[in-house]
Amino acid sequence: FRLAALSNTTIAFVCTSIFTFVGMRESFIMVSSIVCGWTVVLAYVFWSCELMPWQAAQSKLLEDIALQNQQQMSVTNGAIADMQLLLEVLDVSKMTNVQVEKIEGRLRSVQGDVGAIMNSLRLDYFDV
Hints:
The protein is mainly α.
């Protein structure tokens, strides 16, 4: 027998054929042996495919945990991207502050020069 050729219908047909072609007592023994064997095979197949009720509940729980972890990772990745963007903005603002300080220094220098020129013009005006 190949396992792929076995199905519930095949097993039912074999059991019915045994009742037809074998004596009464022997047929019950053979059918009960086949049914027990088929139960073990199906239990193993269901267990290995994780289709048992307790396995399905555990699989669902694991899927939920995996989904939560994935959502947390996406939130974390978004937060990391936001932090990187904020760091870039901070760098730009620092560079802007440095440039503003340079311009303020230049304006004070120009203001001092203009004040000196204005003072000299006033002195010249009053001296005349």
